[in-house]
Amino acid sequence: MFRPNKHHHQGNLFGWQYILNAKQYELLMKSAGYAFYNEIFCQIDESLFSVLYSKKYSAPNVAVNVLVGAILLQYKYNWTEKELIEHLSFDVQTRIALGLSNFDVEAFSIRSLYNFKKRLAEYQLKTGVNLISLLFTFLTDQQITKYDVTTRIQRGDSVQIGSHIQDYSRLSLLAEVLNRLHRCLSKEDQAANEALFKPYLKGGQKYVYRLKSDKYTSCLAQIASHYRTLFILLYEEYHENETFCLFERALNDHFDFSYERTQLADATINVKENKDLGSDILQSPDDPDATFRGKRGEKHKGYTITGVETCDPNSDLNLLVAIDTNANNIDDSTILEQILPDMLAMTEDLEEAHFDGGYGSEKVDEIAQEHDVNIVQTALRGAIAKVNMDIIHADETLDQTTSNQTDSVKVNCPNEAHPAVTAQKVNEKKGKLSYKAVFDLSICEQCPFKDHCPTKRERNKNKGVATFRFNQQYIHRQKRRTAQSKLPDERKYLRSGVESTMRSFRRGETNKGKIKYRGLFNTELYANAMGIVLNFERIYRYNATLLIIFWRFCCSETLLNALALKANRKTDKFILHPSV
Q1: Which of 35, 90, 128, 306 is 20 to 30 A from residue 359's alpha carbon, by CA?
Q2: Are 89 and 209 within one domain?
């Protein structure tokens, strides 16, 4: 049964002043722990998590805000579960951050934390909703309003996150899957197939450890034969078993395997070439969701975290406003298509979004155009044309409800001798417009760019015209290419600053470049929790800076008044500084 936690509001929190001396208590009230209590813990909407508990009258839940706050602190400081419990037991700042009034109050047992994460995972599997993601959105929306954060300019980027899995070679992975399959079988089936499983029972890594390179091909063919035989023997009894499903996935990933359920004995199998293996093949039996990606010569097995933050140059406080977690083989443009509507829903005043070249696509352009958002990109994909036709007044042309929209589309040739040409609408398929601009061939023949001009293929000497054809996609692409050059200098290179933000998501990495977690759910939980933590840290630094400024102001005013009093004492006049 769900019950909200309101005990921390009853005044007992300040019982720490009876445990600590005056100096310690003063430092505690200025600490990050107390700031976390005010900015995060007290703002957690526990009702978001009520769906995890039974509505029937039963034993109440462990305080949700304490559990969620503990998860956030664990990710913030990169603690293990053991370290988290130790800090909860002995660290005053950790306890005050979670609204615990003294050392007599028990927070929770480690089993309660595991059960809570399990409930979160089961709810997401059932509904597709990550409750920590909802909490991030809820808290960020409050913070934007409270601190009057300007959200009209934003920037985004992604970072590769390595899953905490073993780096298997192809052969060692296949052997490891057979080792795991053996464990899930009944003792009778283990004994009946002992000869097939025997080479792999010590695990995939040990199987390949003493293997000579010239034996690799023959061993791969042998393991393919074992896969075929075991599938035929075990399918009927184990085809619904989770481990057997991983075995079947590895079988289909690495082999061309064809069969009919009514005629399993006739199944054929062949080893796939390495070049035919996809990026979404099973990387480890411990993390079926992880995918493979090669980027800048590095190999990544895991996920991608995409973050978007405000970046107004005139704002002293900028916050993360959107976080998304995906398999690392999903294209950046597809990710932006998914999160751009969420960005617009949360920050309706969004006008300008900065991304790198990988995020551009026709769909992104359509969404941005619909909501009047200027997408600014750096290092766009594709070759740069030697001659670019400049589309003038293109924005008016994209409103397809306007009857005279083609009159406002003009194309400007880089040749100054040729005046701008009004384009004509020539085709409209599936709601997409196509245009043509007709140039005077006599001028084109004298043009220094004629050998590289896009009109080169459509020059009609009989009619004396050169034709340039384009569509909406060309207009959008050109708009993205020229968007950065049209910005003021202080906004041209805003995107680069988000890279340091995305590196902060790698705080939880081990020395092997992997976080301590596996699976898409755990990575998504980590990403959204880190988003909440990073925003809190920015707010804490912002408030600390304001406090320092205020303190310096008070000191300067005190000094000025002291000097004024000293000067006026000689004339027996008591005149304060004008600012008082």
Answers
A1: 128
A2: no
